[in-house]
């Protein structure tokens, strides 16, 4: 592919991000790496939240599944994301208040303060596993782009993509993540701005939708009605289970900053989340018979002229790198703060912990790379990672709002729901979330009535 100008645009973009990451990461302290010293502005919190929400897992996953089954998966994802921002407008300030009061850095800090160290450790382990899967999704997206862009095999592209992204993300931490997310948000927006009109005219305008079979517009085509409505209802709550959301919320300047940022994120995300559905449908119409995960890239190569194609590729890279940043920060911070510093090196100083956090970031990324190589199904990885975290919901809401919530109830709720999810995943597939969530809720509620609570009042 002799797209010299497009290559140049992508290379310039990568160099800018790497340079920003290097200089922002120098002389960094541990609190910079984990919570940006709790001074993130409304603008930066908004662009960081949106950049992560539009990660390649969402963008490429929705486009790929729209190619396979039509609008079903994309519509449920749209409602889930928009409603999750609405939930964060309400509960985000409470998370920020907790973070400031207890100097928290991870979601497990909440479980440690409200419940117990064992519940906190279990939460951290499940978080690490879920974000390993999420990081794998981002690697798959970058590798798919590299495969299309430079024409090498997918496996080689995956290895090259991993080396570049690990070198960048293991250095900067949350401060670097938030700063580069600002740049990456505008690059993603530029990609959408050039893709929509050109794709619209390429397929022949609105009349093109009449050529699709009726099944393409069946809202229950992916996973049935249980998955559709369940993913919307529980997807609306998924934001409060994501540690990257907690870290960004902890990092805000104030509770008002949190509320404003998530309100702006909701308003901007609503129209933008429809676009990946269109891209998948357009790719299906123009290029039937290709691998669905490469549908978006194939569409870009064939509808974007030289120069604009480079912007499109840079947009996909921006979506990928933004999410990789967040996932790796979550994984490395969780292990360092919640496991290493509490069980392995209890008296370690800040400099030592920062070095270990960066080292664990590399190890975390390498494991995610192996998962990506052996399980290259983006949608399945996204769904399982999300299901794993959904089981946190009863303990989180109970911790904030129910005086009877206690450590035993939280611990067994997480253990039994995880076992239920694993069994259900291999027997009933994507609908395994339902029995797992029911077990999580019932065990937590019953356990809270039976066992003695840790607090006589809610923690602030």
Highlighted features:
460 residues; mainly alpha; Sodium/glucose cotransporter
Describe the structure.
The chain has 460 residues and is mainly alpha-helical. The protein has two domains: 4-378, Sodium/glucose cotransporter (Up-down Bundle), CATH 1.20.1730; 391-460, no CATH class. 78% of the residues lie in helices and 0% in strands. The chain is built from 19 helices and no strands. Helix 6 packs antiparallel against helix 7. It is globular. The N and C termini lie far apart (58 Å).
Any chance you could write out the topology, listing elements then pairs?
Elements: H1 4-25, H2 30-35, H3 42-53, H4 56-69, H5 72-102, H6 107-114, H7 117-150, H8 154-202, H9 224-235, H10 243-251, H11 255-272, H12 275-286, H13 295-303, H14 308-344, H15 350-374, H16 378-390, H17 393-401, H18 407-425, H19 433-450
Structural class: mainly alpha
Distance between the termini: 58 Å
What share of residues are in beta strands? under 5%
Radius of gyration: 21 Å
- Assembly form of the protein: single chain
User: Can you give the helix content as a percent range?
Assistant: over 70%
Number of strands: 0
Summarize the structure.
With 460 residues, the chain is mainly α. The protein has helices at 4-25, 30-35, 42-53, 56-69, 72-102, 107-114, 117-150, 154-202, 224-235, 243-251, 255-272, 275-286, 295-303, 308-344, 350-374, 378-390, 393-401, 407-425, 433-450.
């Amino acid at each position: 592919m002799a797209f010299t100008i497009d290559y140049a645009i992508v290379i310039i973009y990568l160099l800018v991000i790497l340079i920003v990451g290097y200089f922002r990461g120098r002389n960094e302290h541990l609190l910079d790496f984990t919570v940006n010293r709790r001074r993130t502005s409304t603008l930066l919190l908004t662009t960081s939240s949106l950049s992560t929400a539009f990660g390649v897992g969402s963008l490429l996953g929705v486009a790929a599944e729209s190619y396979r089954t039509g609008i079903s998966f994309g519509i449920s994802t749209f409602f889930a994301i928009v409603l999750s921002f609405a939930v964060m407008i309400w509960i985000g300030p409470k998370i920020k208040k907790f973070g400031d009061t207890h100097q928290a850095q991870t979601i497990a800090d909440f479980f440690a303060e409200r419940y117990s160290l064992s519940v906190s450790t279990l939460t951290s382990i499940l978080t690490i596993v879920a974000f390993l899967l999420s990081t794998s999704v981002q690697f798959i997206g970058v590798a798919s782009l590299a495969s299309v862009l430079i024409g090498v095999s997918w496996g080689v592209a995956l290895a090259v993509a991993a080396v570049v992204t690990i070198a960048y993300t293991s250095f900067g931490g949350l401060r670097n993540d938030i700063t580069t997310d600002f740049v990456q948000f505008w690059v993603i927006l530029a990609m959408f701005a050039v893709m929509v009109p050109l794709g619209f005219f390429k397929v022949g305008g609105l009349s093109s939708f009449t050529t699709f079979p009726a099944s393409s517009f069946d809202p229950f085509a992916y996973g049935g009605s249980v998955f559709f409505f369940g993913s919307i209802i529980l997807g609306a709550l998924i934001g409060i289970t994501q540690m990257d959301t907690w870290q960004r919320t902890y990092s805000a300047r104030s509770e008002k900053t949190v509320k404003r940022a998530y309100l702006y994120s909701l308003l901007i995300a609503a129209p933008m989340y429809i676009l990946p559905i269109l891209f998948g449908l357009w790719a299906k119409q123009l290029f039937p018979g290709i691998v669905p995960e490469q549908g978006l890239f194939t569409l870009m190569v064939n509808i974007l002229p030289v120069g604009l194609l480079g912007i499109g590729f840079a947009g996909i890279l921006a979506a990928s790198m933004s999410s990789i940043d967040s996932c790796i920060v979550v994984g490395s911070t969780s292990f360092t703060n919640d496991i290493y510093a509490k069980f392995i090196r209890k008296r370690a100083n800040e400099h030592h912990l920062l070095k270990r956090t960066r080292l664990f970031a590399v190890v975390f990324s390498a494991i995610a790379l192996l998962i990506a190589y052996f399980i290259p199904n983006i949608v399945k990885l996204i769904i399982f990672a999300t299901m794993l975290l959904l089981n946190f919901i009863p303990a989180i809401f109970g911790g904030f709002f129910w005086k009877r919530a206690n450590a035993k109830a939280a611990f067994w709720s997480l253990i039994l729901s995880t076992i239920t999810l694993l069994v259900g995943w291999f027997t009933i597939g994507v609908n395994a979330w339902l029995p797992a969530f029911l077990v999580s809720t019932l065990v937590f509620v019953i356990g809270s009535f039976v066992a003695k609570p840790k607090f006589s009042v809610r923690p602030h």
